[in-house]
Protein 1
Amino acid sequence: MTIENAIRTCLNLLAEVGVGNWNVCVVEDFPENPTHMGLCSYRARTIYLSAKWLDDDAEMLTTMRHEIAHVLSASDRDHGEHFEQALSLVPTQVTCARDFRIARCGPQVEPLP
């Protein structure tokens, strides 16, 4: 999956569950935890995805769904019942693709702010 495709797919999944006004950014790494695949930041209203996993479409989609569930459950740490309910609302694939304009997307992976 390309950086642009990852961002577009995640934005479409957010739109499908009725979430707008959030950003998606692909980062090179998460320095505080290099094994992380994604991160949901309420402060920045951004889902960050690790570029390390772009080669694995299935894992990237699973990560997108996981981070979107954090957006829906309004919790960045909890993985309890409310999170599981939110996860069940996130589609497993994009069913109605919208053409989002991707800003600052190119060969360089954006760093965390």
Note: The beta strands are 23-27, 38-41, 46-50.
Protein 2
Amino acid sequence: MGTVVTVRLDAETDRLVRRLAKRAKVSRSEIIRMALHRFTEDEHGHGLTEGSVLERVADLIGSHHSGHGRLSEQTGRRVRALLGSRKTA
């Protein structure tokens, strides 16, 4: 076991840590360790470029809903319509 450190968190940070821990199914201590690790990587310029682009944006993929279903199925038709309207304009 490592060193025990007591940290005082404001209410908002505590809620954030608890929410992240619940979502990730890890302890609050683990969330804080992960945050410190990422902070030290960022401070020393290492963590910003590690991993593939996919790994670095994985948490963002699929996190937005456009409100329009089946976009990939209709892309060709929309592009043709857009290009057709530009030709006539």
Note: The longest helix spans residues 71-88.
Protein 3
Amino acid sequence: MWGPGRSGNPGGRPKVSREWKDICRRMEPEAMSALRKALQTKGERVPAAALILAYSRGRPEVRATVRVIHSLADLTEQELLAIIGRGTPDAIEGDATELLADVATEGELPTITTD
């Protein structure tokens, strides 16, 4: 997409107008009062507390392990069979590699029977 050292957002984060910041600052006492009230209200308690903690302590770090699949060759035989929706390797004649070769040449999924 972008070359090395290039940003997908070269202008950076949009600036908030001074006027809007001033309006928000004037509303802070009312907003804090609403949050205090929400902390005492069933059903609003947790979202209010989460908002307060997110801004006072920072949001918790979220980590995820992501597996990138570039082609069908990156998938295991079981994953391929699950995608096809046909169960286990025992349910087909041949292996998934042959099955995929058929799909690639014929352009449609072969019929697979299960017992």
Note: Residues 57 and 103 are 53 Å apart (CA to CA).
Protein 4
Amino acid sequence: MNFPKLHWTKLHSTDPIERLNGESKKRTDVVGIFPNKDAIVRPVGAMLLEQNDERAVQRSSLHDSRNHRRNERRSNHQLARSGTLILPA
């Protein structure tokens, strides 16, 4: 694959795309018939923006938790080297 390794976990399944298609169908079925192209762009565009915001929050919280674990490991290693960390038996 030519995608960055961070993207590989997202590419193993088409479930996210199918979920977006289902959500789009659900929101457009409520309206039924759209008078023009702009009328369909509004609800579908709003749904896509909503999904993008949710993914951005997920990515940032995942990034924060990875940084927290990395920093915790570093400080544990530093404490272990100095002999002040008491490891569980």
Note: The chain has a mean pLDDT of 75.
